[in-house]
Design a protein that fits this description.
Number of strands of chain A: 12
Helix content of chain A: 25-40%
Strand order of the largest sheet of chain A: 3-2-1-4-7
Strand content of chain A: 15-25%
Distance between the termini of chain A: 16 Å
Oligomer: homodimer
Number of helices of chain A: 9
CATH superfamily of the largest domain in chain A: ATPase, nucleotide binding domain
Radius of gyration of chain A: 19 Å
Shape of chain A: globular
């Protein structure tokens, strides 16, 4: 049996499942400080005999196995989690191999294994919610270089009519600063779920996300782009992204039909936790 | 013996060399229409017994082996070269295996094998000259997905003081439209080589290229960034790129020391032709 943790900024999803991605039990735990959250995580896993645990975590995290802080959450503003030795604390308690990557890399892996990109060796998974992040599969493997990508913080061009100053604590009006769920709420004075009929909200959202997709496409050339997260439940955003992307790219690159190219997660909200199971499978096989 | 072609928009460099990247003879041929240029290329190779030829070509090109137009230069505005079956015409004449990729991918491969990134499994090579393009090595392999990257055409934010409208025929003021050699000449009324002492020219160049590097870093997280091409002979641009990049990233991601991270090609102007030799080596080994 394998254990999986999808560690998000608002909640932890923990699951046990098998190496085929089948989840047999799961639980949700609110993300408080580590001293509160982690004991509940360990309690959930306690009754299972696990071969490995996979963690898909919010970040930034240290994924370099040669680094002295490998397995740490690093520069998060989230109280109690900065410099938290995530892998070490789970490993110490459960004594099993641990797979560790970003939440969005886990989701990309889940989608590439069992979801919308399951027959492809290349895809991009983007979440648009409390934050914006993305993970990529390149030639069959999770993209990693010096560190993991931080694609949510790329620069976009401001819409001339957009007066909102941006919400990112590091870059103010980067993509995440202008297009995350909290940015939508701050700009329009209400949560996105209460703005469903306000066309201009989702026009602007499509305007910014299309710019991001243009950059991702020109730099990574993914074979499929999967957009998940709370904001993407507003399906009109997909329509607006495709519209602006066609304008921006102006036929410079040839792409597949955009309706099959830019899609929702095949695994729905289970992309991340399924991917965390795959990280556990990889760790067990090592 | 291996053959190599670095096919650029203004000249072709052809070379013969060995599988260790050693070049034994080379020639330069101006890029005219294919009916003029290709016979001269073939004439150069004629006296050698070659095992394979590697081509690093200007583009966009079709690098998908399953495509009916694999080996073609596709949508170039360059007279005579649109939809030109480059691989086919060389293969027909020389009857050897052909390796085929973009000029910048070839240069990235050259730098990763024998140049500034020779001990790394990850790097980004960017050329800033007549056009702007980049190739990436990810986990030891040339990055390829649906197609090859087209990183020169990403969006940047215009400098508020920059009135120049941009030179890209597809996107007007994308990175290439604002920061290529021809854009510099059009904006300032003279070629870059004649503007060496005009600080504002290279400030603005650094301003745009730093934005591009920010996007590349956040999306690809390369282990080394190598900048070549005619414009990058102005060494003050490196200083300006580093300065603006530090401001833009604002310590969100941890990077190596920028002086060793953002560098000139280790192979100088031979990155592309050396990489084309490596493409030939790969083709011979297949």
């Amino acid at each position: 049996m394998l254990g999986a943790i999808e560690a998000g900024g608002t909640k932890f999803v923990c699951a046990v499942g098998d190496s085929n991605g089948k989840i047999v039990e799961r639980v949700q735990i609110p993300t408080a400080v580590p001293e509160e959250t982690i004991p509940k995580v360990l309690e959930f896993f306690q009754s299972y005999s696990l071969d490995a645990v996979g963690i898909g975590s919010f970040g930034p995290i240290d994924v370099n196995p040669e680094s002295p802080t490998y397995g740490y959450i690093t520069s998060t503003p989230k109280e109690g989690w900065m410099n938290y030795p995530f892998v070490q604390s789970i490993k110490e308690a459960l004594s099993v191999p641990i797979g560790f990557n970003t939440d969005v890399n886990a989701a990309a892996l889940g989608e590439a294994t069992y979801g919308a990109a399951k027959d492809l060796d290349s895809c991009l998974y983007i979440t648009v919610g409390t934050g914006i992040g993305a993970g990529a599969i390149v030639q069959g493997k999770l993209l990693q270089g010096w560190s993991h990508p931080e694609m949510g913080h790329i620069l976009v061009r401001r819409h001339p009519g957009d007066q909102y100053e941006g919400k990112c604590g590091y870059h103010q009006d980067c993509l995440e600063g202008l297009a995350s769920g909290p940015a939508i709420e701050a700009r329009w004075g209400d949560k996105g779920v209460n703005l469903v009929d306000r066309e201009e909200v989702w026009e602007l959202e499509g305007y910014y996300l299309a710019q991001a997709l243009m950059q991702y496409i020109l730099i990574l050339s993914p074979k499929k782009i999967i957009l998940g997260g709370g904001v993407m439940k507003q399906k009109q955003v997909f329509t607006n992204i495709r519209k602006y992307l066609v304008e921006l790219l102006n036929d410079y690159v040839t792409l597949p039909d955009l309706h099959s190219y830019i899609v929702s997660p095949g695994l729905g909200d289970d992309a991340g936790i399924t991917g965390a199971l795959m990280l556990a499978r990889e760790a067990a096989e090592k």
